Amino acid sequence: MRIINTNIRQNTALAAGLIICLMVLLPGSLLAEDDERQILQAQIESGKNLNSRAQKTLFASRSKQDRGDHEAAAGVMGRWVADHPDQQHHLLSFNWAVSQMALGQPELALKNLETAVTLEPRFARAWLRLGEAAYELGKYSQAGQAFARGYQYMPNAQPEILYYSSVAWLLADKPEQAIEGFEVLLKNHRETATVDWYQAMVAAASETERPDDAKPWLENCLSDNASDPDAWYLAYQFAASSMDYERASVCLTVVGFLRPLERDEFLQLGDLFANCGVPLQAARNYEKAVKYPKSVAPADDLIRLASAWMAAHKNEKARKVLHSAVARNETAKLWALLGDLNYSEENYKDARGAFERCVELDPQYGRGWLMSGYCSMEMDEPAMARQHLEKAAGFSDQRQMAQNLLKRID
User: Fold this and answer.
1) Cβ neighbour number for residue 160 with a 10 Å cutoff
2) Cβ-Cβ contacts under 8 Å for 54 (sequence gap 6 or more)
3) Are the C-beta atoms of residues 248 and 233 closer than 8 Å to each other?
């Protein structure tokens, strides 16, 4: 599942920057009077238990924050705390941390946010800010726990908060905790679930000993996003990593129906069909990769294409590819494959010529010497066969076969 994990770890680097968008809760903005969490958070953020001087300090700091002057706002709070070390309060610590985050000081903010949630463990916005700071500092376990607590207490909490909590657990290499969050998320918020959520769930499952636990969620993803190529690409990745090449080839083919495939994706699809024993389809996809606009196919891709045509018994197509390739930039591998093609057609003269050119380019290619010997024996030229086979016997992989053939000549 490493393909999926790599994508997750790259994509979620942007997650922390979005978290702030989810933390809009103003004291008194009650959306439902009977919502206990709304009432609780309004009480927590009211600051009624602050003395008058502390309230004035908080108001002064918030006013500067509203004007975007976070340095001055942080200064107000810093001086208050220094002068009144015995008058800690969750709102004061939280307000100071807000400015410190805006100033790019997550280490300092983290300490104040830890103080805030210690003083008031039910303070939803402080937990969310704590998660943001911890995430930015790479403290993913702490971030995962903080986002989960924020989700627990936040009125009308956005499901994205739970997503960030689970992603943080995943980045902390704690997939079991991540799965618990993703299961709640995908079960309770399926109607708003995105492909990214399912991708993260699959990545978490792949990190455990039960990767197949992701299959039901993946089916939900495809059912709900049947026209989204990203959903089918995720299904392809999962199947390929599970070595279910037939399923993977189907999913990647569907991706190609929904959006144009990239050059590398045509190669991947060709490899899948080759592994499924469908060489004709493999060749057709390799050919699309080779002919991809504004790209020059390397020799290895041409070898894959020619090999697939040969496996599909389309020798003339394979020959055309190989002759074009060696004319452009000959390599030992290309000549060896051309030799194999001629040998399969019992064209031993041209086959030997191809293998001889192969060992000219790479004298250390033992199989080229062996096959040259084979061809010479088929052409009833024992002296030439002996010369090639004696060369082949100098290579460990070909030694036994070459010695056996030399005995036949004797």
Assistant:
1) 20
2) 47, 80, 84, 87, 89, 92
3) no
Residue 397 CA from chain centroid, whole number = 38
* Closest to 184 (Cα-Cα) out of 148, 238, 224, 223: 148
DSSP string for 342-357? HHHTT-HHHHHHHHHH
pTM: 0.78
| Fold of the CATH domain 330-410 | 1.25.40
Q: Is the dihedral of CA 86, 90, 92, 97 positive or negative?
A: positive
Q: What kind and span of H or E run contains 78?
A: helix 70-83
Contact 199, 10 (CB under 8 A): no
Question: Of all residues in the chain, what percent carry a pLDDT higher than 70?
Answer: 92
Q: Are 206 and 6 in contact (CB under 8 A)?
A: no
Number of Cβ atoms within 10 Å of the Cβ of 45: 20
User: What pLDDT, in 10s, does the model give residues 71-93?
Assistant: 999 999 999 989 998 888 999 99
Residue 168 to residue 164: CA distance in whole angstroms: 6
Q: Give the Cα-Cα-Cα angle 259, 262, 263 (nearest 5 degrees).
A: 150
Neighbour tally for 257: CB within 10 Å: 10
> If 0-12 CB within 10 Å is exposed, 13-18 middle and 19+ buried, where does residue 375 land?
buried
Residue 84, both tokens: 């009144």
At position 114, the amino acid (one-letter code) is E
CB distance 115 to 93 below 8 Å: yes
* Cα 66 from Cα 86, distance rounded (Å): 28
Query: What b/e string do you get for 55-79 counting C-beta neighbours within 10 Å, with b at 16 or more?
Result: eebbeebbebbeeebbeebbebbee
**Residue 24, Cβ density class (10 Å: 0-12 exposed, 13-18 middle, ≥19 buried):** exposed
pLDDT (mean) for 100-126: 96
Torsion of CA 165, 166, 167, 170, to 10 degrees: 130
Q: How many residues does the chain have?
A: 410
Name residues whose C-beta falls within 8 Å of residue 138's C-beta, 6 or more positions apart in sequence.
Answer: none
CA dihedral for 127, 11, 17, 112, sign (positive or negative): positive
- Does the pLDDT of residue 207 top 70, yes or no? yes
Domain boundaries, the chain: 330-410
| Count of CA atoms in the C-beta half-sphere (13 A) of 259 | 13
Distance of alpha carbon 147 from alpha carbon 161, whole angstroms? 6
C-alpha–C-alpha distance, residues 62 and 208, integer Å = 46
